[in-house]
C-alpha cells in the first residue's frame, strides 16, 4: 500500500549492534521531508537501530499536511500495519487518537519533562496517544542587512511591515534585482494557510475561528480588517505565485536572497545559515507583527508528535524508538543541528542550544503561548473546519471575494458543519 512513498535509499537500515539477530525486529517510521526533516529523522532512527540491534524502515510521506492526514486515515481505517510509528501533527491526536496505543506503559513518566500543554494536547480520554517530538510557532524572518541599509527597524505591526517591505522592494529593484519581493508567506489553499491566517486574525484581536466553548467567532470586524490587510500583499509586496506557496516555496525565495521578510517555522533558520546559503549571516528572527497598536504578537502553535499504531506487530520496539527519538539527548541534537524546537522545557536554558539558535531564548514566550488551532474543541470535524477556513481566506487573497463577504459565508458553512455540537 505504501510502495510509492518508500524512499529508494530508505530500505531497512541494518543495525550495528551485537543483539542477536533472531531477537531483532524491523520497525517502520513515517517521516516528513520539509527542509532537512527527513535526513535528521533518518539519522536518529539509525542511531536507535545501532543501539538496539533492530532494523528501521523509513517511510517518506507527503509534505502537505492535508495529504498526509488523508493517507494516515486511509491506512489506519484499513487496520494496515505498514507503519509502526506515525509522525503526527499537533492538531491530530483528537482525530487519530483511537488508532494509537497508550504510551504511558512505556514512558516511565518521561512526559513530565515536556511542555505540559503539549502533553495535555496529546492525551485523549486519559491515554497518552503520542509523545511530543518538536514544537513550532510561526515567526518572522528578516534580512537584517537590508533593514540597516534602508534605516529601518524590525516592524512592530503588519502595517509597518507592509510599508517597509515596499520600501526595500523598490530599492532593491532599482538597484537591479527585478526578482526581489518584500514579503513571502504560505498562501496556498492548505493547512499552512490556516496557520498564517489565524496569526493575522489573532494579532488583530479577531479570535481563533472557534472559541474554547465551541462558539463560532470568526465573522467579526477585526478578522475582516486582518484579511483585508493580507489581501493587499499578493502582486504588490508578495509575488502572485505566493497564492501557491507552502513552506518550502517561501523559503526558496527568501533563502535565494530575493525577499526582505518571510513568515515561516523555526526549521528554516539552520537552512538559511547553512554553508551554501546566499543569506548566511544576514538573517534574523523576531516575533510576528501585531495587528496594530492595540494588537498582539502571536504565532500559530505547530509541531509534531510520535505515535505507535495499535496495528503494529512490534509495539514494544516501536514505543522504544519513540522514547529514544523524543528523549532529551536526541531533542538537543536536533535543536543544535537543525533548529528544531525542543518540547523539553529545560533545553530552552541549555547554553549549547542557545548558542546554536539564539532566538529560542528571546522568543521562548512565543513558543510557550502560541495560539492553538481549534482542533480539540471541534474534534473529528476539525479537518472540515480548517478546509472551510483556508478556502475562505484564499478567496480573499485571490480577490474572488471581499473579506466581509467571505467571512459571512464561512460563518454559515461552519454552522452547517457544527450542526448543534462539535
Automatic annotation (TrEMBL):
The keyword Signal applies. Its main location: periplasm. The keyword Signal applies. It comes from the Bacteria. InterPro entries: Bact_solute-bd_prot1, SBP. It is found in: Periplasm. This is Carbohydrate ABC transporter substrate-binding protein (CUT1 family). It comes from Varunaivibrio sulfuroxidans.
